[in-house]
Automatic annotation (TrEMBL):
The lineage of its organism: Bacteria, Bacillati, Actinomycetota, Actinomycetes, Micrococcales. It comes from the Bacteria. The chain crosses the membrane at residues 38-60, 72-91, 103-121, 127-148. It comes from Microbacterium betulae. This is Uncharacterized protein. Keywords: Membrane, Transmembrane, Transmembrane helix.
Length: 159
């Protein structure tokens, strides 16, 4: 089985009804879009490093005799996994898959809204994790802003 066949199987799961909609290549040739996708990849890379750091901090604190609550571990690992999923969506969106772009655009605004709401609950997370959540939300809002530019939306319109 080729890599493309594997990716198409993953796409069937992730894309739903929109899995066959692909943006024409000529719309993706815009240098602005290429630069935007580069910045999106950089922001997602920083978000993944932030997630790995959160897991590392929780591990280090636990090793120092200050075990972190289950919610810290759960949130760290789930957000790290979700950010990795956004990385996959980014990869597929750059190839012209409409579904990946639309999901990235949606999640880049949903994740920060949920993250900031949860971060606002007093005492739910330690202060270091609240700071990490705000930084993560800022990164995701940056991704959402890039994906919502007029040129990006024009390139990824249906049809």
């Amino acid at each position: 089985m080729s890599l493309n066949e594997v990716l198409l199987r993953v796409d069937r799961f992730a894309a739903g009804r929109q899995r066959d909609i692909r943006v024409p290549a000529d719309r993706l040739a815009d240098p602005f879009l290429r630069r935007s996708w580069l910045v999106v990849r950089l922001l997602l890379g920083v978000a993944i490093m932030l997630g790995v750091s959160a897991v590392g901090i929780a591990f280090w604190l636990t090793a120092q005799g200050m075990p972190e609550p289950f919610l810290v571990w759960f949130r760290s690992l789930v957000v790290l996994g979700l950010t990795g999923g956004l990385g996959y969506f980014s990869f597929r969106a750059e190839q012209g898959w409409y579904w990946a772009y639309s999901r990235m655009r949606l999640f880049s605004f949903v994740f920060p809204a949920v993250t900031l709401t949860i971060a606002a609950v007093p005492g739910l997370y330690p202060a270091w994790m609240t700071v990490e959540q705000v930084a993560f939300a800022a990164l995701m809002l940056g991704v959402g802003a890039l994906l919502s530019t007029r040129r990006m939306r024009a390139a990824y319109r249906k049809g």
